[in-house]
Amino acid sequence: MDEFQLIEKAKQGDLSAYSKLISDYSPIVERFAYQMGNNLNDIPDISQEVFIRVYRFIDGFTHAKFTTWLYKITLNVSRDFKRKESQHNKRVHKVMNEPVYETAAAHVSVLREEEDRVLHECIQELEEKYRAPIILYYFHEKKYEEIADILSVNLSTIKTRILRGKSLLKKLLEEAEKGEGTING
Fold first, then answer.
1. What's the pLDDT score for residue 168?
2. Residues whose CB is less than 8 angstroms from the CB of residue 164 and which lie 6 or more positions away in sequence, other chains included
3. Are 151 and 75 in contact, with CB atoms under 8 Å apart?
4. Residues 6+ apart with CB under 8 A from 100
5. Do 76 and 84 form a contact (C-beta atoms < 8 A)?
6. Where are the alpha helices (DSSP H) in 12-154?
7. Residue 36: partners with Cβ closer than 8 Å, 6 or more residues away
8. Which of 43, 109, 122, 126 is a good FRET partner for 3, with 20 to 30 A between their CA atoms?
């Protein structure tokens, strides 16, 4: 059964088709959510929320490419989680009246190779407007046009952001290599 048939069956309420969509696409959702800088412990919740939204809004899905729609939803859910986490951390900080620190231990255990860890941390230092296109282009092998659709910006903006993002990432990696940046192993 191809992607189109699977989506049509899911639209008709076929839970086995919906379940197949989840099993086929959750690795993509989880990987993208993690690469966008979400806490490793939040990935299952983010993935669940993405597929709840897919289920709720699948009747309105009319895009030619399902993954484009899925990336958009994942990006929005990730933003929502970060916003909620930020608000929660501010409240905790206010109550505790001491700084809130995020531990990197969970991230380090996932990325075994030192180079992968440094790359991941450098990518996380990029502003989202650069981070999302870089991740979609290099790690999810999306074309410029699809990235523009996912992020709802025009094609020339995507090209510019990828070019600038690469330049910024290169500087961050050079700083990390010299041990001058905020990233230390």
1. 95
2. 130
3. yes
4. 89, 92, 93
5. no
6. 15-35, 43-57, 66-96, 105-110, 114-125, 128-134, 144-151
7. 74, 75, 78, 128, 131, 132, 135
8. 43
Instruction: Express each pLDDT in 47-75 by its tens digit.
Output: 999 999 999 999 888 867 899 999 999 99
Structure tokens at 116: 């992968």
Neighbours of 90 (CB within 10 A): 11
Q: Are 10 and 17 in contact (CB under 8 A)?
A: yes
In whole angstroms, give the CA distance from residue 172 to residue 121. 9
Read off the tokens for 163.
């070019």
Residue corresponding to tokens 């989880």: 30
Sequence letter at residue 46 = I
Instruction: Say which residue the tokens 């899911």 belong to.
Output: 10
